[in-house]
Design a protein that fits this description.
Oligomer: single chain
Order of helices and strands: H
Distance between the termini: 141 Å
Shape: rod-shaped
Structural class: mainly alpha
Largest sheet: none
C-alpha cells in the first residue's frame, strides 16, 4: 500500500499549488484591507473637514446676526435719545411760556 514516487510528486505539486492559491488569496485580502483602510482614512478626513467648514460657517452667520441686532439696538437707542431731548426741549419751552 505504499505510494509511488509519481504519486508523492503529484501530491507535493498539488499541495504547492494549493499553498500558492491560499497565499495569493491572503495577499489579495491584505491588499483589499489596506485599500479599504486608506479609503476610510480619506473619507474620515473629508468628513472632519466638512464638519469644520460647517462649524465655521455657523459661527460666521451667528456673528453676522449678532452684529445686525447690535446695530439695530444702537439705532433704536439713538432714536430714543433724540426723543428724550425733544421732550426735554418741549418741557423747557413750556416752562419758559409759563414764565417760571
Amino acid at each position: 500500500m505504499g505510494e509511488t514516487m509519481e504519486t508523492k510528486v503529484g501530491n507535493s505539486r498539488l499541495e504547492e499549488k494549493q499553498n500558492l492559491v491560499q497565499e495569493a488569496a491572503g495577499f489579495r485580502d491584505a491588499i483589499r484591507k489596506q485599500l479599504n483602510d486608506e479609503v476610510k482614512k480619506v473619507i474620515d478626513l473629508e468628513m472632519r473637514k466638512a464638519a469644520q467648514e460647517l462649524i465655521e460657517e455657523h459661527k460666521k452667520a451667528t456673528r453676522l446676526v449678532v452684529e445686525e441686532y447690535r446695530a439695530m439696538i444702537h439705532q433704536i437707542v439713538e432714536e430714543e435719545k433724540g426723543e428724550v431731548w425733544k421732550k426735554a426741549e418741549a418741557l423747557k419751552q413750556s416752562i419758559l411760556q409759563l414764565g417760571l
